[in-house]
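Sorry to interrupt, but I need a hand with the structure work. Go ahead and set the record down below:
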Amino acid sequence: MKSNHNLKTFKLLKNVNQSGGDVQAALLYLFFIGIIGLIAYIFYQYKSVYIYGTDGNYVYKYNMILGEKYGKWTKITESLASMDLSKTILGLQIIGDTIYATNGQVILSHELHSGIKIGNWKQISTAGNIKQFQIIGDTIYICNQVQVFKTGLKDGKNGKWVKISPGTIKNFQIIGNIIYGCNGSYVYKYTIGSPEKDGWTQITEAAVISFQIVGDNIYGNNGNHIYIHGLNSGIKGGNWKQLTGGNIKITEFYILGKYMYALIENRIYRHILDVDLNANNWIAMANKDISISTFHVAENDKILGIQLKKRESQQY
């Protein structure tokens, strides 16, 4: 009887030990899955955001996850000097797998991953006086620092620029059928197709020289600081709220997600949207290897060649 009891006890202990081992194995498995998930999340959040900048001659890419210390500007296009055009790149926009640029005369395109090879830049518009451009769908919009014009993205060198706004504005952003414009002080809006005699409708008080609309907010740059203004809050003193501090010169800025990016002394910096006005909150995101003249921040929707999800490109 005693031997049977010992046998039962041994089997029970064996089952308990085996069960405990299974639990430990399961916990270890979940731990490693969690670590992999965390790494994938970080990789997705940061690895997929790139700065694209130009020194006026070439376009470069900078991986932000590597930061200022370890990052490196990588040249991704040839110079415009290979074409019978002014070689200075004055504006950039990245949409999907295509780089769009202007030299102030025409709009050009370059496949993002086609490499550095003469002939990869393609002229996709007829000549014009281009100070700023925005591509939405199959339409190119430009501003000559007076009015806004449009042409078809696929019309090429035979396309015609059609005026779609009254004057006088220096920069613009189109959302739906509304053009938002800035004359170097105020922000206005104009509904495309409405009588030109109706003119622009002022929507902010004076403060900024350039702007970007994101959601229900207008972000503006007065040359030294970034401000925020409700899109529909009206014209009233005090509606512009200062977001950044420091005695700095901001040439360009761009809002993406919870960050604002700025070109400060030919270098790219980043600032969280909802922090205080301390000047030290501007953090350098790229080194000084390249003297940047204009830039664009874009999210990559592929990691290791895998399509993640469709993302809408922010344009300004």
Remarks:
- DSSP finds two helices and 26 strands in the chain.
- Confidence is low (pLDDT under 50) at residues 302-316.
- The radius of gyration is 27 Å.
- The longest strand covers residues 250-256.
